[in-house]
């Protein structure tokens, strides 16, 4: 064997070399590069990898060979050096396996052709090919922690500054982001709103308009751009600043301050400084230049023009904003009162004052008990009616405050003195006396002391005056002359009032003159007539004397309504009247009156009334009539004496007649009329069963009973009369002399005397 090997070695060394040169002319020769002869096995260097995004393998280019045959791989790894310490991973794949722990690793790949003899007999061109060494760096995500709270609330405004800080270890790059509701977006570097967009600390320079917004920081390893960590989300809530409005106010000079200074309560402007939620705001006041706190804003003194700063703070969010307030003084007005009324007013008179010096005036009135009509007002004049219900004169004081351009001036007072009201009491006394009587007293039901009460007659003074100490009184001298007496009261020399009512004194005599009675001379029985008595002088009442059969319905002084009772015959009576008063009765007046009985009217009953046929209405009466008023009960009327009328339909009707005789005395009567339908040949039944049964066994003329004055005749077909009867009542059974008529046709003739009407019809007599 050894011999053979020694013999074969030169052959193999020579022949195989020639073989490979012939087959693969580009293959390296033995002795050149002990590895990778005829093969390529190059792997690529990966960038640093992030542990959280590292794939299981990294794709590598496949090894190639000039020799045919399957390729196998073996990966080796070293954790210490690129030149040594490699150990097989037992991974037969062309792609690079990736470690699962952070660190620096060195890899190489061994590529071999399958089916090649094992060493030492493996020819050099078929020996395993060792790749280049690559460094693989596995990076952990950066460690990050927040140093700020998870949320914060800041006041809105360009001057608001707030910082958020996170801490990250290792070589990292920071990027802040915000979420505006559509997702997180990187904050641009150099933003005017933010500072530190690429640092650990983000500073918000302007919170105005941010609203509620979420922030986070993304930290990226400097070794791997894919290796990132994100901080927890920080929520920022923007609290709105109070909405403030600059104010410019003109403030009136104070009437109590010196040198034209104004005193103002700055707190009264608080609500005007803001337009939002004034109930939850607190205002602090400062001078503007220099800014200094105002210790007593309720009593701020200033002169001319001053500029202040109002700091408005929301007591819920504690956000504040400044408002500028400019205050300017203006002078107060003064007023002058010109009294245009008398110094002493009568109760009920107007107190008139004209006011000058200002644009507006407010006044109040201070009045003692008993004064009515005094009250506050706003006008350049005072015009009020003042009433003094007391017993003494009283003063009313008006305090007037002038106002100009919103400024109040110093008040002034004016006073009105009001005399006591002269009360009105009812006048008593008066009445009627007969001529020669001593007279009647006149007075008051009550009076006031120290007031003169003068008696007047028909509006003129009688010269009789009485000053009463108070209480009811009468004048001492009785009055015995006609007239209307009133009492006029006077006080204070100019205040006067008429008392209520009057006392009328009438001096009467017995009624004189000749009386007359006016009214109808002819009256009808049961009718009412009006009579009037007159002709007496000074009569206050009237007495009526009524003979039988007259009766009074109503008597009112001169007028009497009289009705005549029922009488049997016409006749004349005497009606009397007399005028009277408290002094006696005058002469009696008389009037002769003729009384007529009413006519008795009876409507005559017509014999028969048929619908559609005219008929005449007549009547009987006890005297001749001059007028007629008929009512036929179907809406028809007539004024004729014996009218003709036609009813359209049968039925019951009520006819009435109101008639008047030549003296216009009325009589009336009513009559019930039954209107029947007309009958004709169709009312004759055309069949008679002459056999004694009840079915069609009689000669029947329908509705004949309404015409009792009738006549019915039956003729045979040869014209012979077989039956005749007046006042027929539908009661003949077709027997003549006890025998039924023979069967056949007959003619039935009906004559109605009431309507002078005759009609006929052929009828048939049957036996079955």
TrEMBL record:
<dbReference type="Pfam" id="PF18911">
    <property type="entry name" value="PKD_4"/>
</dbReference>
<dbReference type="InterPro" id="IPR045828">
    <property type="entry name" value="PKD_Bacteroidetes"/>
</dbReference>
<dbReference type="Pfam" id="PF19408">
    <property type="entry name" value="PKD_6"/>
</dbReference>
<dbReference type="InterPro" id="IPR022409">
    <property type="entry name" value="PKD/Chitinase_dom"/>
</dbReference>
<dbReference type="Pfam" id="PF19406">
    <property type="entry name" value="PKD_5"/>
</dbReference>
<dbReference type="InterPro" id="IPR035986">
    <property type="entry name" value="PKD_dom_sf"/>
</dbReference>
<protein>
    <submittedName>
        <fullName>PKD domain-containing protein</fullName>
    </submittedName>
</protein>
<feature type="domain" description="PKD">
    <location>
        <begin position="598"/>
        <end position="682"/>
    </location>
</feature>
<dbReference type="InterPro" id="IPR045829">
    <property type="entry name" value="PKD_6"/>
</dbReference>
<dbReference type="InterPro" id="IPR000601">
    <property type="entry name" value="PKD_dom"/>
</dbReference>
<dbReference type="InterPro" id="IPR013783">
    <property type="entry name" value="Ig-like_fold"/>
</dbReference>
<dbReference type="Pfam" id="PF13585">
    <property type="entry name" value="CHU_C"/>
</dbReference>
């Amino acid at each position: 064997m050894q011999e053979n090997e020694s013999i074969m070695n030169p052959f193999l060394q020579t022949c195989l070399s020639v073989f490979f040169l012939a087959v693969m002319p580009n293959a390296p020769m033995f002795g050149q590069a002990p590895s990778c002869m005829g093969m390529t096995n190059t792997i690529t260097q990966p960038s640093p990898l992030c542990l959280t995004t590292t794939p299981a393998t990294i794709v590598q280019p496949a090894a190639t060979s000039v020799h045919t045959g399957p390729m196998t791989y073996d990966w080796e790894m070293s954790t210490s050096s690129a030149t040594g310490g490699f150990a097989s991973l037992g991974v037969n794949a062309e792609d690079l396996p990736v470690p699962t722990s952070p660190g620096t690793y060195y890899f190489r790949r061994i590529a071999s052709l399958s089916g090649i003899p094992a060493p030492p007999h493996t020819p050099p061109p078929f020996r395993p090919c060792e790749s280049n060494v690559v460094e693989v760096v596995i990076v952990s995500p950066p460690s990050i922690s927040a140093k700020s709270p998870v949320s914060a609330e800041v006041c809105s405004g360009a001057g608001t500054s707030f910082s958020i800080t996170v801490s990250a270890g290792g070589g990292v790059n920071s990027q802040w982001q915000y979420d505006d509701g559509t997702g997180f977006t990187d904050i641009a570097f150099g933003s005017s709103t933010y500072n530190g967009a690429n640092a650990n600390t983000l500073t918000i320079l302007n919170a105005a308009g941010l609203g509620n917004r979420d922030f986070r920081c993304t930290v990226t390893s400097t070794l791997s751009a894919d290796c990132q960590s994100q901080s927890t989300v920080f929520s920022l809530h923007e609290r709105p600043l109070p909405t403030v409005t600059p104010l410019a106010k003109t403030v009136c000079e104070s009437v109590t301050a010196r040198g034209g200074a104004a005193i103002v309560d700055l707190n009264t402007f608080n609500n005007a400084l803001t337009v939002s939620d004034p109930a939850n705001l607190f205002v602090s006041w400062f001078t503007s230049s220099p800014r200094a706190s105002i210790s007593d804003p309720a009593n701020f003194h200033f002169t001319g023009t001053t500029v202040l700063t109002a700091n408005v703070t929301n007591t819920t969010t504690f956000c504040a904003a400044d408002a500028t307030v400019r205050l300017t003084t203006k002078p107060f007005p003064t007023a002058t009162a010109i009294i245009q009324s008398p110094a002493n007013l009568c109760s009920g008179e107007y107190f008139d004052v004209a006011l000058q010096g200002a644009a507006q005036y407010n006044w109040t009135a201070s009045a003692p008990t008993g004064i009515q009509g005094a009250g506050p007002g706003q006008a350049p004049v005072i015009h009020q009616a003042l009433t003094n219900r007391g017993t003494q004169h009283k003063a009313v004081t008006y305090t007037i405050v002038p106002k100009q351009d919103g400024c109040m001036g110093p008040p002034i007072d004016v006073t009105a003195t009001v005399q006591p009201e002269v009360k009105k009491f009812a006048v008593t006394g008066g009445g009627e006396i007969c001529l020669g009587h001593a007279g009647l007293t006149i007075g008051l039901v009550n009076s006031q002391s120290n007031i003169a009460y003068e008696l007047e007659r028909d509006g003129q003074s009688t010269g009789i005056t009485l000053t009463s100490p108070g209480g009811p009184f009468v004048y001492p001298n009785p009055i015995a002359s006609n007239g209307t007496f009133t009492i006029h009261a006077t006080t204070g020399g100019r205040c006067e009032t008429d008392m209520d009512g009057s006392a009328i004194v009438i001096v009467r005599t017995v009624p004189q003159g000749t009386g007359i009675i006016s009214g109808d001379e002819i009256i009808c029985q049961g009718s009412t007539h009006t009579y009037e008595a007159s002709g007496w002088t000074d009569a206050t009442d009237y007495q009526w004397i009524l003979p039988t059969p007259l009766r009074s319905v109503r008597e009112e002084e001169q007028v009497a309504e009289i009705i005549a009772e029922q009488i049997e015959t016409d006749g004349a009576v005497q009606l009397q009247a007399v005028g009277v008063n408290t002094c006696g009765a005058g002469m009696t007046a008389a009037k002769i009156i003729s009384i007529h009985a009413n006519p008795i009217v009876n409507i005559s009953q017509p014999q028969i009334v048929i619908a559609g046929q005219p008929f005449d209405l007549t009547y009987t009466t006890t005297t001749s009539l001059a007028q007629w008023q008929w009512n036929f009960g179907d809406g028809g009327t007539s004024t004729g004496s014996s009218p003709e009328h036609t009813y359209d339909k049968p039925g019951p009707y009520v006819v009435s007649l109101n008639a008047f005789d030549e003296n216009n005395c009325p009589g009336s009567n009513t009559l019930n009329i039954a209107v029947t339908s007309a009958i004709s040949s169709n009312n004759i039944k055309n069949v008679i069963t002459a056999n004694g049964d009840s079915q069609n066994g009689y000669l029947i003329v329908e509705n004949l009973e309404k015409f009792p004055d009738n006549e019915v005749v039956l003729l045979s077909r040869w014209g012979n009369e077989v039956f005749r009867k007046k006042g027929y009542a539908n009661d003949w059974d077709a027997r003549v002399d006890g025998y039924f008529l023979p069967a056949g046709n007959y003619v039935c003739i009906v004559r109605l005397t009431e309507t002078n009407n005759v009609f006929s019809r052929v009828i048939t007599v049957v036996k079955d």
